[in-house]
Amino acid sequence: MTTGITPVLPTYARFPFAFERGEGVRVFTEAGDEFLDFGAGIAVNALGHAHPHLVEALTEQAQKLWHTSNLYTIPGQEKLARRLVENTFADTVFFCNSGAEAVECAIKMARKYHTSGGDEARYRVITFEHAFHGRTLATLAAGRQQKHLEGFGPIVDGFDQVPFGDLDALGEAITDETAAVLIEPIQGEGGIKPAEPQFLRALRALCDEHGILLIADEIQCGMGRTGKLFAHEWAGIAPDIMPIAKAIGGGFPLGACLATQEAARGMTAGTHGSTFGGNPLAMAVGNATLDIILEEGFLDRVQQAALKLSQKLAMIADEHSGIIEEVRGQGLMLGLKCRVPNTDLVAALGDEHMLVVGAGDNVVRLLPPLIVSDADLDEAVDRISSACAALEARTAKSA
Questions:
Q1: pLDDT band at residue 367 using 50, 70 and 90 as cut-offs
Q2: Do residues 56 and 82 touch, judged by C-beta distance below 8 A?
């Protein structure tokens, strides 16, 4: 039967690139064309493509056991949870498959925390303008971006939103029904906007003052992307709950929700679950990813690479001020605020065989694998400069 729809549901505006294989910070088409990957699968491929340690871990596990379900103990879960607990604020971890699922778990956990303490009125979560927390109905409501909500019926109740970084507005939004505050320490989809450390510290104090939970969504900015294991560490604070995903699986679907013992007090047997979450394959790759990121000197190297890249991008912004207005972000999570449509710069970089990711506020995201070398950075900067020059020439020609 002939229809007007494609076999793959057409919910993506895809670029005309199809890749066959990857190695390190590069991907290759079937024809052999090489691209420098500074999108990393939207901050997923933190260790690049086909990292030998990850390939070995996945291959070894695939020959043993793929799935048993969470009806039984999964040793890999016990190991990865213990390591995450040892290296973070958390006391316990729930494993799932994606960032949206991790945020859903965090929202449920925050509500259950209050109801288990006898305060059933507290169920609302305060979020911030331009946030992105996923594409389920609840996480869309948390992000509250109209372009994502349109056409999906009534918005799921339970979320209030205030301007990003506005402590006064946040204080006014807290009521007797507020259960938690949910924030990305660095907004990714919203345009690479870091929360100021003093704001995060004041936010932590405000949550403590009102007896509500602080949820840090570190799905995109976590797992070493900023040069610390998690971005909130730069502010010297700790959340009560933290959903993570993306880089933790190094390319394999994996999410997790970390929490303190107190915050997780209501999450007893039967309150939450996942069929595939934390299966042996995912745990093998998750543990292998953590092996590398926790190696001595790894995060120091990320900080060094980030400093070099940000300095070189600042020079490009000066040289091509008609194209780039501002360089923003932290670590290897950087954004180019554009004076031209960001889609134009993304396309121009595609012509230069470099992959990047668009974001809100007319920003182009640079999210290279954390293993990026100095030579890779130099090459990336050359390609960005060439793309800007091409856009300037095009603009001059059309003027």
A1: very high
A2: no
Q: What is the DSSP string of 304-367?
A: HHHHHHHHHHHHHHHHTTTTEEEEEEETTEEEEEESS-HHHHHHHHHHTTEE-EEETTTEEEE-
**Rounded Cα–Cα distance for residues 271 and 259 (Å):** 15
Rounded CA-CA distance 241/349 in Å is 37
Residue 128 backbone phi and psi in degrees, to 5 = -125, 145
Q: Which residues contact 65 (CB under 8 A, 6 or more apart)?
A: 280
Q: Looking at the predicted structure, is the pLDDT value of residue 1 above 60?
A: no
Q: What is the pLDDT of residues 219-235, one digit of tens each?
A: 999 999 999 999 999 99
- DSSP character at residue 234: G
Q: Which two tokens stand for residue 391?
A: 């856009």
The helix/strand/coil state of 242 is strand
The two three-digit tokens of residue 347, written as one number: 């396309």
Burial, 369: exposed, middle or buried (Cβ in 10 Å; 0-12, 13-18, 19+)? buried
Whether the per-residue pLDDT at 397 is higher than 90: the answer is: no
DSSP 284-314: HHHHHHHHHHTSTTHHHHHHHHHHHHHHHHH
Helices (H) then strands (E): counts for the chain:
12, 17
Q: Which residue has the tokens 């780039």?
A: 324
What single DSSP character describes residue 315? H
Confidence of residue 395 (pLDDT cuts 50, 70, 90): confident
The pLDDT tens digits of the residues spanning 17-53 come to: 999 999 999 999 999 999 999 999 999 999 999 999 9
Q: At what angle do helices 342-351 and 374-398 cross, to 10 degrees?
A: 120
Buried b / exposed e over 51-61, threshold 16 CB at 10 Å, is beebeebbeeb
- Specify whether the CB–CB gap between 353 and 36 falls below 8 A: yes
Residue 149, number of CB atoms within 10 A of its CB: 16
Tokens read off for 313: 């991008």
The residue with tokens 């990026």 is 372
- Residue 156 makes CB contacts below 8 A (sequence gap 6+) with 137, 138, 140, 141
Question: How many CA within 13 A on the CB side of residue 191?
Answer: 13
